[in-house]
Structure formats: structure tokens, C-alpha cells
Design a protein that fits this description.
2 copies of one chain form a homodimer.
Chain A lengths: L1 H8 L1 H48 L7 H15 L7 H10 L8 H15 L6 H19 L3 H20 L2 H11 L1 E2 L7 H17 L17 H35 L3 H19 L9 H9 L6 H14 L7 H19 L3 H17 L2 H11 L5 H14 L10 E2 L5
Parallel strand pairs in A: 1-2
Helix pairs in contact in A: 2-5, 2-6, 2-7, 2-9, 3-5, 3-11, 4-7, 5-6, 6-7, 7-8, 7-9, 8-9, 8-16, 10-13, 10-14, 10-15, 10-17, 11-13, 12-14, 12-15, 13-14, 14-15, 15-16, 15-17, 16-17
Chain lengths: 415, 415
């Protein structure tokens, strides 16, 4: 007993505790700084995207400028990008190999290009921009405070957390997302404190700027029984394959662009043209921009049966040819509409399957099952916890090593 | 596009998919077998513990036989244990180093000794027994199906998941617990499918055997604001230190026993005597056995201010001198009573702090923050999600590399 007490108070232990408290304080400080800046920039991003979406919807003619916007975006990345065009993958590579320095300008550039994409009708979301801004800001903090090499990566991860948490108003999922997205099958707990702080501070700062996030409501959750569980497992596999289909198609569009249209301006121009042609071919503008009204419809009513596929193609072309924004809201769109469509087939409530689809497609595409599960708890207030848990894990398993982030490292094979 | 489709259907891919489906099916099969057996044994464990607790409470004289019970337990482990007395740590060592073969008899022996401990009033829980039975059963499946080396460890992890999920009626936390408990700071995702299957099947089988788990209800959750968040952070640090105090005291009791009382019968005999003396010194039998009534009181009313400390000492002596059962329910007891006590100090609702304390102490002692968080979602129906999330992470960080499992490997330092 005495030895136990003395162990607690001897000098080595005291020094260790002092180091612990010092390290902890600097993480809290850096995380807070990152959170404050990222939360503010995310608020700007969301408000401006909302505004640009209104402008676009009021002026349908803007769509015809999408190819021109593509040229501008291509030009910016070609001449001013300093390597930042690799976007999220650059951040992942930087964390893995200390390769591909993160340029500070990455954040402002991706914001500008996201605004152009939103105004002109590209099918895109927001978290790519928020995350890249978060990483830029972290890199700024790194340079300002001359942070050492190992801690640099950790701060950049916390920038990802801050970006995600503030972009979606989900600080819990944001915390985990940074740690989980970097390596498939491994959670980087050493980044826990700065991720937690950056994500929460980022969220509260964005809220303080008046940001209100979308609310989607599950109207009823089916009872848990064997048949329903089997249905959910089957559906989760379908959602998982949808995520794979999207990831593969987007990578394929990019591969073809790299091969046949090396010029970034040309490929985005062509991408813009294809989006215009597709829009007029199917005669609907529902797949342009973020498409939040359609996600709402998936929770409240019914959506056209193949809308998930339309969004999948629109987004793969938009993102694959170099437009900017993010893929999470489009993934939510695909999952929610597919869930809605499948609800009449399997006889489960549409709003519940819309929610399940959103989360499962997200889990499969990002390979972050725990973040996806926590996201479902935050978005749907703890409803249907067992189903969401199963859906996240099954979708993660079945998406194999496919996913939207080509530079995610594989820590251990999933099975 | 064509290359994309052909990629999906070429032979290598087809073989890979076939292997995937075969591997998956065997995991589901093995996980189910383990789940069915573990679920049944957990049901037996819980029912028998309930029965023995009733017998003990109706016959206070049983406590005087605790030292004799200790001799019996010591005798069993000395002459029939085949190394299984290291309990949970043996399982962890086996998974890490393929060392310390898991004897099939570990399960039956730990059950018998848990029953003796419960009947005679040792302060203990159940999950140690459930987990060790799970591991034994997995080892049985391993030998029966001649599973290869890597997969053996994975199956044993799924035995842990099945044991935890069925012992507490929390299949989600059970799934994660197996994967998270093995290595601090690393989740073993490769064990995901068998853990998921074993934990869910285990839980449903135990339910089918008529097991009903304790329900603790949070009456009100405080609003989220800066002051409350700071209070929760402070409290989480206190809960974390409580978990460290318990882990250290138990390891210290064991160390002293190893040093001064090499004979297992002697140390448990002495442990039994100390428990009797303590019981009559403080004049209360509340700290014997599982102590579930006191946990209920922590949610419904008020508990004596130092009851957490009493339970801490009773359990450290019981477990440190070789009695059996588990430490999770005692940890719940410490956290819930301490939370209840602190509620009047910080001015937050007692039932809420009881719940928070349970989860935070568990997170710090087991070093499984995500499982602890999910456990809170399962036990308290998604109430207070933000607070629980913060409490689990803070408690995990502040418990450092201390914890109840001495053989937990440290993957990466926490900070």
C-alpha cells in the first residue's frame, strides 16, 4: 500500500504527469485554435453555398456556364494549385508519408472552386471543402507554432475532424472521423484530444455564427425480429454495393480524364457539357447541386425509383472531372433515395430506410464504420440503434477495399 | 466504362469474391456456434448467480464460509487449473503471443469458482466468468474445426464478444469490446464479423433462455451548455482517477499476495477473512456480492458518500486474492455511487451522474472508450449522447496506461 502511494508521488512519475499535462494543454490549445477558425470558415461555406444555390435555382440559365466554370477551376488548379488539386488524397498522403506538402492556399482555393461548382450546378457536397480548409488551417498552425513532425500529422487529422464536425453539425462523428478515415481498419487514438477539441469547438463556433443544419426525421422504426434483421442485412449489402459502384465509377471517370484529357481545363469543360446534356436528357434538375430537397422527399414521400443512380452518375462526372465540394451529401442522396425506393419492395418504413441508406452508403464509401454509426446516433437521436450498427458494419465489410479516398492506407485486410 | 465492368467480372476478381464469400460464411458459422453456446452458458451463469445471491441474502451466515471457499478456489486452481488462473490476462497473452495455451477447462472452472464467490459474499461481478467461458468455447471450436493460427485468435476474440454481449444484454458494445479490449488504442477490425455474430447470437440465445437484464433509468439529462460541459469534463477526470485507483489497488493486492503468500489457498483464505473483518467493521453488507441494489439506489435515491471507496476496497481484495467473477459490475457500482455522491456537489441530476459514472469508470478501467460509449447508448437509450461521448474519451485519456487488464498490449501511447 505504502509502495503504491510512493509510486504515485515519486519524481519520475511526477515528471511524467507534468509532461502529460503540458502535452494535453498544448493539444487543447491547438485544437481550440483550429476549431475556432475551421468553425468560422465552415459557417461561411454553408451560408455561401445556401446563397449560391438560391441564385442558381432562381436563374436556371447558370447551368450553361458550368463548362466555363470548369475551365476557370481547371485554370486555378493548373496555375495556382501548388499540388492542392489532389484534395483529400493529398492530405492522406501527407499524413502517411510526410509527402506532398499541404499548401496553405489549398483551403481558399477549394472554397472558391466549391462556390463556382455550386453556383453553376455541379453535383457536389461540402465536406471536401471543409476538410481541406481544416487541413490548411492546421498546417498554418503547424508553421506558426513550429510543431514537430509527428504532432504535425496529428494536428492535420484534427483539422479533418474540425472540418467534418462543423460542416455537418455532428461533433461526435467529426471527432472519430478524423481518426478513422486515415487508415482503413485502424483508429488513430493518439489524435483523440485535438480531434475532440477541434470538432466540438468547430461545431459550436459554426452554431454561434447562426448555422442550422438539415434535420431528417425517422417516422417509425420497425420492431427487432429475425425477419427484419435479415432484411436489414440484405439491404446493407445493397447499400454497400452502391457505395462501391459510386467509388469505382468516380475513379474510372478520373482515370479516363487522366488518360485522354490531361489538361485540367479541358476535362472540366467536357464534364460540364456532359452534366448539361444529362440534365436535358432526363429532363430534371433534381440532380444538380447538393440536392437536399430530394433527400427531404426521401424522408417524407416518394422519389423516382432510379434517382439514386442518376445522382451517382452526376456526382461521379462532376467530381471525376475536377469540380469541387464534397461527396458526403451526394452519398446521403444516393442512400436516402435508394432506401426510399426499396422500402416498398421489402415492406419497411420509407423514412427509416432512407436514413439507413444514407448512413450505410456513407460507411461503405468512406470506410469509417464507427463514425458512420455515431453519425446516425447524432442525426436520428438514437433511434434504431441496433439496425444502424449492423448496417454500418455490414456495409463496411462488403465494400472491401473500395472507397472514395484512394489514398486511404489499408492497415489490415477486413477479412 | 467497359474496363470497369470487365474488371468486376474477370477471373481473379471472381476468385477473390468467392474466397470472400467462403471466408465470410465460415466466420458466420463459427460465430453462430460460439454465440449459441456462450449465450446459453451466460444464461446459466446469470440465473445461478441470482439464485446464489438470494440464498446468501437469506442466510447471512454463509459469509463466514468465505475463507473456506477461498481455500477451495485456491485448491482448484492449484491442482486443476492448468494455467487458467491468470484468467482474462491469459486470454490476452494467448492472443498476443500465441503463448499460454487456453485450457478448455478454464470455462467450467471459472464458473464453479464464480458460484462459490457469489454464494459466500465475495465482491464480484460476472463478465470475467462469461469472457473466460467464451474463450474456452472458442478454443473448443478451434480444436474441433482445426482452425489455422491467425483465425484462432480471431475466434477467441469473438468468444470475448459473445461473453460480454450475452452477460450484459448489450450486443453492440459486446461486438466492439472484443475487438477493442485486446490492444489499447487499436481496434481489431479483422475480427468484426465473428464478433458481431457471436455477440448478437449470444445475446438473443440468452434472451431466449429467459434472461432479463437490469434496467437503470436516467430521469433527466441537463442541457448542453459551457458550464455543464466543463463540469462533465471535471467529473470525467475524477471518474478516471477512480478507475486508476481501483486498478492499481487490485494489482497491488495481487503483487503483495504473490510476494508474501505464494500458496493460492492461503491468500484466498486471508482475503476471505479480511472481507469478513471489513464487513463487520463498517457494519454493512452492501458491499458483498454484486451489490446491484446499491446501484439501483444510486439511480433512485441517495447512497452513503464513501460507498464507492468501500466497494473499491472490497473488490480489490476479493479479486486480488484470487476469488472469481468479474469486475465490470463492481466498476458500475463504484461509478454509479460516486456519481450519485457528487451530484449534490456539482448540482446535476443524481440519476444522470450515476449513469455517467458507471460508464466513465468502465471506460477508464478497461481502456475501451468506443465500447463504453456504445454501452451507454444501449443501456440508457441514447440519452445524453454528447456527455457520454466526452466522458468516455476523457476517462480513457486520463487513465493513462493503467487498467484492469495487465496484459493489454499498448499499441500507441495515448498522448
Amino acid at each position: 500500500m505504502a509502495s503504491l502511494i510512493s509510486k504515485f508521488f515519486n519524481t519520475t512519475t511526477r515528471i511524467r504527469h507534468k509532461t502529460f499535462i503540458l502535452t494535453l494543454s498544448s493539444w487543447v490549445l491547438w485544437g481550440s485554435i483550429i476549431g475556432i477558425i475551421v468553425g468560422s470558415t465552415s459557417a461561411l461555406l454553408i451560408n455561401f453555398n445556401d446563397f449560391l444555390t438560391e441564385v442558381r435555382e432562381a436563374n436556371p440559365v447558370t447551368l450553361f456556364f458550368l463548362p466555363i466554370g470548369g475551365i476557370v477551376i481547371g485554370y486555378i488548379y493548373m496555375y495556382y494549385g501548388k499540388g492542392s488539386r489532389k484534395g483529400n488524397d493529398l492530405i492522406l498522403e501527407h499524413i502517411h508519408h510526410e509527402q506532398g506538402k499541404i499548401p496553405l492556399r489549398m483551403g481558399p482555393i477549394v472554397f472558391l472552386c466549391t462556390f463556382i461548382t455550386h453556383l453553376l450546378g455541379g453535383s457536389t457536397g461540402r465536406e471536401g471543402a471543409a476538410i481541406q480548409m481544416g487541413a490548411s488551417i492546421s498546417e498554418g498552425v503547424n508553421r506558426l507554432f513550429k510543431v514537430n513532425k509527428i504532432d504535425r500529422s496529428i494536428l492535420i487529422i484534427s483539422g479533418i475532424s474540425g472540418g467534418f464536425g462543423s460542416a455537418f453539425g455532428t461533433p461526435l462523428a467529426g471527432t472519430l472521423f478524423g481518426m478513422e478515415a486515415i487508415v482503413i481498419g485502424k483508429t488513430k487514438y493518439e489524435a483523440l484530444i485535438p480531434c475532440l477539441v477541434a470538432s466540438f469547438v468547430g461545431h459550436y463556433v459554426a452554431t454561434a455564427w447562426g448555422i442550422e443544419h438539415e434535420h431528417f426525421i425517422i417516422k417509425s422504426v420497425p420492431d427487432i425480429n429475425t425477419i427484419n434483421l435479415l432484411k436489414i442485412i440484405g439491404l446493407s449489402i445493397i447499400f454497400s454495393f452502391t457505395s462501391v459502384m459510386y467509388s469505382q465509377l468516380r475513379h474510372e471517370v478520373k482515370r479516363l480524364s487522366d488518360k485522354y484529357m490531361k489538361n485540367l481545363m479541358l476535362r472540366a469543360f467536357v464534364g460540364g457539357i456532359i452534366i448539361i446534356v444529362l440534365t436535358y436528357t432526363i429532363g430534371s434538375r433534381d440532380y444538380l447541386g447538393r440536392g437536399l430537397p430530394m433527400v427531404e422527399r426521401a424522408f417524407d414521400g416518394h422519389v423516382p425509383p432510379l434517382s439514386f443512380l442518376a445522382k451517382l452518375v452526376f456526382t461521379a462526372i462532376t467530381m471525376g472531372t475536377g469540380f469541387r465540394g464534397g461527396e458526403v451529401i451526394p452519398l446521403f442522396f444516393m442512400g436516402a433515395t435508394l432506401g426510399n425506393t426499396l422500402s416498398s419492395v421489402v415492406g419497411l418504413p420509407p423514412s427509416f430506410l432512407a436514413a439507413l441508406g444514407m448512413i450505410a452508403v456513407f460507411s461503405g464509401a468512406t470506410n469509417t464504420p464507427v463514425s458512420a454509426f455515431i453519425l446516425s446516433m447524432e442525426m436520428f437521436e438514437g433511434k434504431g440503434i441496433t439496425y444502424f450498427f449492423i448496417a454500418c458494419l455490414i456495409s463496411f465489410i462488403f465494400s472491401g477495399h473500395h472507397g472514395i479516398y484512394a489514398s486511404q492506407k489499408i492497415y489490415e485486410p477486413k477479412s
